[in-house]
Specification:
The structure holds two protein chains of two kinds. By secondary structure, chain A is an alpha/beta fold. Chain A has ten helices and seven strands. In chain A, helix 3 crosses helix 9. A seven-stranded mixed sheet of chain B has the order 3-2-4-5-7-6-12, sandwiched between helices. A five-stranded mixed sheet of chain B has the order 9-11-10-13-14, sandwiched between helices. In chain B, strands 1-8 form a two-stranded antiparallel ribbon. The chains are: A alpha/beta, B alpha/beta. Chains A and B meet through helix 5 and helix 6 of A and helix 4 and helix 6 of B.
Chain lengths: 281, 316
């Protein structure tokens, strides 16, 4: 990936992070930690990987995306808006009564392919989409992002077993391994580790990536495309709260919005990051 | 009665799927390792490439069905009622109901007439569970003819449908050649002015028997078959309440949350008349031959007759 492209992606990811803070601050709730850990992945998907068209969000041959860890909707909404699916002004209305942007992804939102939020169900829906594409000879690909805590849900492994059995090579499950869930570290709560070996045992093509490195993301998504006999699991090491110093690695930022002071501090940090990136343009 | 043809409603479901397979390339059928019992096996045998076995994983199956439906295809997902509506309730609610996807749930082995398998497999709460999901259509056919027609109608409409079928072979009283199914419309099988017997599923035929016994005692009972429990045909229920002033609701389901509750909700708010329910009282089932269990749990003509006399007494 050339430096200019990479810098543009970094700028978009930084803006997505600002959207996460703006949305959760105005809503006085939401899930900033896990949203901030997937901003590079979502940016890469929507600006480099997925065949989607904001002018025709329901076009039948589009690639599908399911945010299986639906609570990280603020990041998805920010990236969808940056991609042009709806105006940025919607971000500040996140979680408000009557707002377009629901607390968790809803299929009624332009660009959202599946309602999600009850953990473990999104990956199964993605499997259904991939099965449909294979069955009817449609060429689209299907991507899902799961949380590392989410994979404690048994349904994830029902889906994993089925997808491998049906050789759904058009399916990519990206597991955001930020190591934290609501009640503590994933190891403390009910360890899903080792994640890579589990997916391998279920018959998947398994890749690992630095979830914040666009070169590395390009490498694994290309490798997933070249695998033609199995679904691909991408295990992404990431930092919960990435980009906002006081949220990084802090389990307490899983599910609460910043107060005014915290919002200002976080936004100032992100504005400085953005200015530095734009200075490189 | 010996020459009355008996067939389980699940057989009608299988026949409908077979017919859909011949005409609808877009129909996919899913099952969870119960294809022989649910009768999706009939479809599987004829159209193996359009049948997918999800294995013993009903929750995954329901969400997979949802994913398929988002791509514009029609999908049937089958298991026993206990697992389709019970185990996978939250998947049906969140993956299918909330996004209002075009998934048809073919739930067989509903009710106490599952028989010898006993309480773990006798689902008497599925209608209650499904009724709470906004936008869910619920159909509980009374015989195999109605089951086949209902399945075909469900495939024609857009949106989630819960189809409830039984394991037990029950009398076929509808004539296949002349029968037409109208979604959401109750069927008046017998006119009557003294009391109304509203029934669904296998209790419809038993309500007809009860009406015959009541007639012998000089009581003129109306019999209404409600195959579509949601949306309820409010008009036919209200008219019956106004015209007869007394109602018995009979269903092979818990007395909590089923058709009886739906009728009571409607009548309490619009036309309060005495109502009594014939259903499984607030207890779990037990093992035994299906026909014996139906008697044991009061799901028979005798109990409908008794309840009809009780509402008549309240009416006076």
């Amino acid at each position: 990936m050339d430096q200019k492209t990479k810098n543009q992606l970094k700028i978009l990811a930084c803006k997505a992070r600002m959207g996460v803070l703006e949305g959760t601050f105005n809503a006085k709730s939401g899930h900033p930690g896990g949203s901030l850990s997937i901003c590079e992945a979502l940016t890469y998907l929507y600006f480099r990987e997925l065949n989607v068209d904001p002018a025709d969000p329901d076009k039948p041959d589009r690639d599908r995306f399911v945010l299986s860890k639906g609570h990280c909707a603020p990041a998805l909404y920010s990236v969808l808006s940056l991609r042009g699916f709806f105006p940025w002004s919607e971000i500040a209305r996140l979680r408000k009564p009557g707002a377009l942007l629901q607390g968790h992804p809803a299929i009624s939102i332009p660009g959202v392919d599946m309602s999600s939020g009850s953990l473990g169900q999104g990956i199964s829906a993605a499997v259904g989409m991939a099965l449909s594409a294979k069955h009817f000879g449609d060429g689209f690909r299907v991507y899902a992002i799961l949380g590392d805590g989410e994979i404690e849900e048994g349904q994830v492994w029902e889906a994993a077993m089925f997808a491998a059995n049906k050789k759904l090579s058009n399916l990519v499950a990206y597991v955001d391994y930020n190591g934290l869930q609501i009640d503590g570290t994933v190891e403390q709560v009910n360890s899903p580790l080792p994640i890579d070996e589990k997916f391998r045992a279920f018959g998947w093509n398994v890749l690992t990536v630095d979830g914040h490195d666009f070169d590395d993301l390009e490498r694994v998504f290309a490798a997933a495309r070249s695998c033609t006999d199995r679904p691909t699991a991408i295990i992404a090491t990431s930092v919960k709260g990435k980009g906002v110093s006081f949220m990084e690695g802090q389990v307490g930022w899983h599910g609460k919005g910043p107060n005014a002071e915290e919002y200002e501090q976080g936004m100032n940090e992100l504005k400085a990051q953005l200015a530095a990136l734009e200075g490189e343009e | 009665m010996a020459d009355v043809k008996k067939l389980a409603t699940r057989e009608g479901y299988g026949q409908a799927l077979l017919e859909l397979g011949a005409t609808r390339e877009d129909v996919i059928v899913l099952d969870a390792d119960l294809a022989a019992a649910t009768k999706t096996g009939v479809f599987k045998k004829a159209y193996p490439d359009r049948f997918y076995n999800c294995g013993i994983a009903e929750q995954n199956m329901m969400s997979i069905a949802a994913g398929i439906a988002t791509t514009g295809k029609t999908v049937f997902a089958s298991s026993f009622a206990m697992f389709a509506a019970g185990r996978a309730y939250e998947q049906v609610r969140n993956s299918i109901g909330y996004p209002h996807l075009n998934v048809k749930i073919g739930a067989t082995h509903g009710g106490i007439s599952v028989g010898e398998d006993g309480a773990t497999h006798q689902c008497c709460e599925d209608i209650a569970l499904m009724r709470t999901i906004p936008g869910m259509t619920i159909i509980n056919p009374a015989d195999a003819v109605e089951a086949k027609a209902a399945t075909l109608a469900a495939a024609e409409m857009t949106g989630p449908v819960y189809l409830r079928f039984g394991r037990l072979a029950v009398p076929v009283f509808n004539d296949e050649a002349s029968y037409t199914f109208t979604l959401g419309k109750g069927v008046t099988l017998k006119e009557g002015g003294d009391v109304t017997l509203i029934a669904t599923g296998l209790m419809v035929e038993r309500a007809l028997t009860a009406a015959g016994q009541l007639k012998d005692e000089g009581i003129d009972a109306r019999v209404i078959n409600i195959h579509t429990i949601k949306p309820l045909d409010e008009e036919i229920v209200l008219r019956a309440a106004r015209e007869t002033g007394a109602v018995v609701v009979a269903e092979e389901h818990s007395v909590i949350g089923g058709l009886g509750s739906a009728v009571c909700d409607l009548l309490a708010a619009t036309c309060p008349v005495p109502v009594q329910k014939v259903g499984v009282e607030d207890v779990f089932g037990t093992s035994g031959p299906a026909l014996e269990l139906l008697d044991r749990f009061g799901l028979n003509a005798a109990n409908i007759v008794a309840k009809a006399k009780a509402v008549l007494a309240m009416k006076k």
